[in-house]
Amino acid sequence: MSMMSRYAALVLLLFAAARGAAAITDGAAAGLLPNGNFEKGPSRSQLNGTQVIGRYAIPEWEITGFVEYIESGHKQGDMLLPVPEGVHAVRLGNEASIKQKLKVTKGMYYSITFCAARTCAQEERLNVSVTPDSGVLPMQTMYSSSGWDCYAWAFQALFPQVELVIHNPGVEEDPACGPLIDSVAIKTLYPPRLTNKNLLKNADFEEGPYILPNTTWGVLVPPNIEDDHSPLPSWMVESLKAVNYIDSAHFKVPQGKRAVELVGGKESALAQVVRTVVGRVYTLSFSVGDAGNACAGTMMVEAFAARSTVKVPYDSKGTGGFKRAVLRFTAEAERTRVVFLSTYYNTRTDGSLCGPVVDDVTLLSVRKPSRRLRLL
């Protein structure tokens, strides 16, 4: 090898090492990953039309497979592709993926938030992984009217440096078909602890995934069967559909800054398992309302605990508001599952899914008065 060739090879190695170091970020702060909105794009020489050429062509990211760099307003057939944040996004073709290295704290929990839009197939899905955790996020159901939904996925860091991978496992005939990805963010999750004021953890839903400030449709928390660690600490999303995590900056919230909107009818249930004393009576109180997002009509929230249930009707005008409800039950085991679900499917006038809001949940034991002997 000539001296000039050796020098060129050394330059390439140093460049690759610098890129690797730049891709490692501190995962402790909540917000977008470096170039998480893909506004820094490939150079013209690294694009073949919209297809990205080169594994490291997108700054801060490593790509594999057929990846496209899409600008807002890009036309696909008769459909215009919008972008929720900024003006650029990426599209993952068959078996394509994007990845970024993250510097995290070993043992801590983290939630990843990203937005995705379906472009071709009705059965699109995404694989999200941080070794050794992985999950499949189905995209058959679109919840917002914009065509974009934001998803949350959580993991526990088993190493101080991890690699986040978002992968499209699709096998479409058109290799360019696949979901659009934008606005990838991270947030550290701090598992809530019990207090003497509530037997439920994270009962006000204040601890949860990062909500992107420039979006107006919340963050979907997937079913627990799709996620080993819940992005909504202490809560599980049971059944087939997601629940929508919302904030007071964009929605009406009964209490605090966060709440949960039940958007999947009986197909999505929010649950938590709590320690109870057999034979003891408990009261479960909670708020039911609407998010002020034009979701009008009759709503119904069902709450279950032990063998007891209550149905709470709510007549929504779509402008916000709530009421309190109470369920009293007697514990039959040392662990009791508390469950919330929506009886009906609700939709807005544009056809997008919506539903009742649940917030400010309290579970307390009712101490029975001691029986005194009655003297005759």
TrEMBL record:
<feature type="domain" description="DUF642">
    <location>
        <begin position="198"/>
        <end position="363"/>
    </location>
</feature>
<dbReference type="InterPro" id="IPR052437">
    <property type="entry name" value="Pectin_Meth_Modulator"/>
</dbReference>
<keyword id="KW-0964">Secreted</keyword>
<dbReference type="GO" id="GO:0005576">
    <property type="term" value="C:extracellular region"/>
</dbReference>
<feature type="domain" description="DUF642">
    <location>
        <begin position="31"/>
        <end position="187"/>
    </location>
</feature>
<keyword id="KW-0325">Glycoprotein</keyword>
<dbReference type="Pfam" id="PF04862">
    <property type="entry name" value="DUF642"/>
</dbReference>
<keyword id="KW-0732">Signal</keyword>
<dbReference type="InterPro" id="IPR006946">
    <property type="entry name" value="DGR2-like_dom"/>
</dbReference>
<feature type="signal peptide">
    <location>
        <begin position="1"/>
        <end position="23"/>
    </location>
</feature>
<protein>
    <submittedName>
        <fullName>Uncharacterized protein LOC103695476</fullName>
    </submittedName>
</protein>
